[in-house]
Amino acid sequence: MSAWLRDHPQIRTIRTIVADLNGQARGKRLPARFASGVIESGSRMPLSGLNLDIWGEDIEDSPLVFETGDQDGVLWPTERGFVHMPWLSSPSALLPMWMFTEAGEPFPGDPRHALDAVLKRYAERGWTPICATEMEFYLIDDATEELQPPASPRSGKRRLGGEILSIRALDAFDAFFTELYDACELMDIPAEAAISEAGMGQYEINLSHGPALKTADDAFFFKLLVRGLARKHGFAASFMAKPYPEHSGNGLHIHFSVLDANGRNVFDDGTARGSDLLLSAIAGCLQALPDSTLIFAPHGNSYDRLVPGAHAPTGISWAYENRTTALRVPAGPARARRIEHRVAGGDINPYLFVAAVLGAALIGIEDGLAPPEPITGNAYAQKLPHIPEDWGTAIDRFEGSELLKRIFSEDLLRNYAMTKRQEKLYYDQLSEAERIDLYLDTV
Fold first, then answer.
1. CATH, domain 119-439, list 3.40.50.1370, 3.40.50.300, 3.30.590.10, 3.90.550.10
2. What is the mean pLDDT of residues 320-334?
């Protein structure tokens, strides 16, 4: 890592960052000449820094604060190493970190460690999950109280309606997207196709498949990049689940398959049906949906997106090649057989999200579960069991879940539930304008 800095003498400052339970970047800013000390000795930070509410406040009665003297943990660099920050005016770099205890053990309240623990269970079987994400976001002019799409730098006009798959809508912000792709290349984020989506000023960029831990890192960095670069161009970018009540929400879909030690996809049996392992993984994901909804919809605004007929699945179902279901098995070559998990909003913590999906799939495989028959037709028009429809119910299901103890540590489950109860208490007292302001370019 020190060699990277020697190869990039223009870097003036670095940010040591770690993702908290809300997927917020926490850490420190320091001159580049002090980076070697962080690489060699780590960086100390209170363990409670990973368990703050969305405002950045301590969680009342958290065992990580006064009960234990607000102890420090030690942040160590991840295997990712330095990452450029091209949205800033001065040459800067991120140094991604994860948290360990004083004794050198992974801190169970660190969401990246939570995902790593799930992946180690796959590794015990000689398996490697491979994932890809679809990242939806809005470009928004938030200079006035009424949100609206930014004016096109080319025409000066605003796009006041959805333009699905419109090249014109993409070209209107060509300078932004060109700089975004250049930045992704610089940050080693595998950005593929960009499309114009259904909402006004809404877009989607696919991040190509790779190892699950890097996939979560890429999603975390991509959100930082898009929000930062949008501000550089004079507008906001939002992954908020539902910034406009009358337009489509932002989703974050994940596609995943599993490779064995020989590089073979264990979901592939040579047919369109897929293997029994595929079906068991689907069953595990369906079983876990009600208890893990709080991870897929972590904020008050998240539930405005989860309404029937709004391009966000609400019924617990699966199907082949059907985008109205919670889980979709896409068509295509058998060797690429995979599951698309379609429930999560763009406002999630990528590490908890990927851990919840892969952990549930593994439970289905471990228990030899079988899913119900795949549905056909419009899932919204069918009588199906539903995921929790409001934040309070989702918190209750999450907090009381025995199933989730097979995926996450009890400490993380407790801390996350306490965080969400505190956030809900204050969120319920906010006006709609204050709620929008809270989430717009935070999540």
1. 3.30.590.10
2. 96
